[in-house]
């Protein structure tokens, strides 16, 4: 397992049943060589004793903002400066709301405002609370500020419900931190642990979107599509294999994160838009492989829609085009788009290449007999301003490797 030596982690624990897993998280972080200091919300102390965290971290645990004894030791401003990264695990819906609002009404939230270190949240809550538009809006706001959201996982919950909201396992949180730090470190070029590997894209910072988006209709239903995310994940892995430092912004998929890739999970097109635009300034290369919903329900409702009339009319409104928005930036990265067409593939793809102002477009034919969604194989026609290359039907992982090679060639040749 790769180490995180000497990284100073400030762990904030908030009041949810997953707080017991935070104890194991401290052990896992220390196993990797991190120094860990723990602060807790008042509610968290009802679940796990501060003494547990003190014993595991080897340091006193902060639980209050106005504690003269704690302030006489490492005071809160000193603690905020000490941290290389701040991790809130579990991050409850209440903590997420307070962070989104910028409140500083207890020790963990105050430290978040007082630190310049990157902030990671590992949400844990009931699935209904996770799906609530208020929580999703709060998360979108935080993502827009560059906060990294790790998880949550799907599955059975302590309350008996089934769905998204379980905190990631401590080992998964540590893996996600490691992957994200190696990406962020190479972005700034300051972290020797993230020295990029050899390859034509050594040190190049790539941002990739993948998977479908889900556009909520009500708390239990969404509009989605059949994208599995396989092509985008394979491209992200292939770019990393060529030496790039890759951040993958992913819609909901069942796929594991490729090795060495930092993954940011999103659900809706609006969240993907915010996650991409918040990071693209630090990217040299942008590959939009996600199947982003072009439309979303105009007004998702807070309560489950009940069947009543024989018809239900849902009004949809346009989502932002993430790829076009990136290509239209004043100083855009090398931008690669995808196009799925049922007919006149080359002609329509070339129109999109020009209309969106892309550097390259990878087009595939979709339809009954073709590759595309939910298939292991695909064929591509790749176009750029003055060239094209055809890739015949082959497994998506191999195709992604060949496409990544071509992207690297064109990127290196670009002005
Ligand atoms: N894309 C995006 N944001 C959107 C829609 C699409 O970033 N809101 C990106 C996709 O990731 C893909 C490309 O744009 O790289 C697909 O473009 P689009 O014009 O939506 O393609 P089609 O779905 O093929 O277009 P249309 O529905 O008009 O045929």
**Quaternary structure:** single chain
Bound molecule kinds, no repeats: cytidine-5'-triphosphate
Report Rg. Answer: 22 Å
Largest sheet: 8 strands, mixed
Number of E strands: 19
CATH topology of the largest domain: Rossmann fold
GO molecular function: FMN binding; metal ion binding; phosphopantothenate--cysteine ligase activity; phosphopantothenoylcysteine decarboxylase activity
Region (Phosphopantothenate--cysteine ligase): 206-415
Pfam family, one: DFP
Family: In the C-terminal section; belongs to the PPC synthetase family. In the N-terminal section; belongs to the HFCD (homo-oligomeric flavin containing Cys decarboxylase) superfamily.
Could you name the key traits of this structure?
19 strands; metal ion binding; decarboxylase; Rossmann fold; binds cytidine-5'-triphosphate; alpha/beta; 5-stranded parallel β-sheet; 36% helix; 415 residues; multifunctional enzyme
Description:
This protein is an alpha/beta fold and 415 residues long. It folds into two domains: 176 residues, Rossmann fold, CATH 3.40.50.1950; 218 residues, CoaB-like (Rossmann fold, 3-Layer(aba) Sandwich). 36% of the residues lie in helices and 23% in strands. It is built from 15 helices and 19 strands. The strands form five sheets. The chain has an eight-stranded mixed beta sheet, with helices on both faces. The protein has a five-stranded parallel beta sheet with strand order 2-1-3-4-5, sandwiched between helices. Strands 6-7 form a two-stranded antiparallel ribbon. Helix 14 links the parallel strand 16 and strand 17. Helix 11 packs across helix 15. The longest helix is centred in the middle third of the chain and has 19 residues. The protein is globular. The two termini are 39 Å apart. The chain binds cytidine-5'-triphosphate. The site of cytidine-5'-triphosphate has 15 residues, from helix 13 and strand 16.
């Amino acid at each position: 397992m790769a180490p995180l030596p000497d990284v100073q982690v400030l762990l904030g624990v908030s009041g949810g049943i997953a707080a017991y897993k935070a104890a194991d998280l401290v052990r896992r972080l220390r196993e990797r060589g991190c120094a860990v200091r723990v602060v807790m919300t008042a509610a968290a102390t009802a679940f796990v004793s501060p003494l547990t965290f003190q014993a595991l971290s080897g340091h006193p645990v902060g639980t209050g903002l106005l504690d003269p004894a704690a302030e006489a030791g490492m005071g809160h401003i000193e603690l905020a400066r000490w941290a290389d990264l701040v991790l809130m695990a579990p991050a409850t819906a209440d903590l997420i709301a307070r962070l989104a609002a910028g409140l500083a009404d207890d020790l963990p939230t105050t430290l978040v405002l007082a630190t310049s270190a990157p902030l990671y949240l590992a949400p844990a809550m009931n699935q209904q609370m996770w799906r609530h538009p208020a929580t999703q809006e709060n998360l979108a706001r935080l993502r827009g500020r560059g906060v990294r959201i790790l998880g949550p996982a799907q599955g059975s919950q302590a309350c008996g419900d089934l769905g998204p909201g379980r905190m990631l396992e401590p080992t998964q949180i540590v893996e996600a931190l490691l992957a994200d730090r190696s990406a962020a470190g190479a972005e700034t070029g300051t972290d020797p642990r993230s020295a990029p590997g050899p390859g034509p894209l050594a040190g190049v910072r790539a941002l990739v979107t993948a998977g479908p988006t889900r556009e909520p209709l009500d708390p239990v239903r969404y509009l989605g599509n059949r994208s599995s995310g396989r092509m985008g994940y394979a491209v992200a892995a292939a770019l990393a294999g060529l030496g790039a430092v890759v951040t993958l912004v992913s819609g909901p998929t069942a796929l594991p994160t490729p090795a060495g890739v930092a993954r940011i999970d999103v659900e809706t097109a609006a969240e993907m838009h915010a996650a991409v635009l918040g990071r693209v300034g630090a990217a040299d290369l942008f590959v939009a492989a996600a199947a982003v919903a072009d439309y979303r329900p105009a007004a998702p409702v807070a309560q489950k829609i009940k069947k009543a009339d024989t018809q239900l009319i849902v009004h949809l409104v346009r989502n932002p085009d993430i790829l076009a928005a990136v290509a239209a930036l004043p100083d855009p990265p090398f931008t690669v788009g995808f196009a799925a067409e049922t007919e006149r593939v080359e002609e329509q793809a070339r129109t999109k290449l020009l209309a969106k102002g892309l550097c390259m477009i990878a087009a595939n034919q979709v339809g009954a007999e073709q590759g595309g969604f939910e298939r292991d194989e695909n064929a591509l026609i790749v176009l750029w301003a003055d060239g094209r290359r055809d890739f015949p039907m082959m497994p998506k992982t191999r195709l992604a490797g060949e496409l990544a090679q071509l992207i690297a060639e064109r990127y290196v040749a670009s002005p």
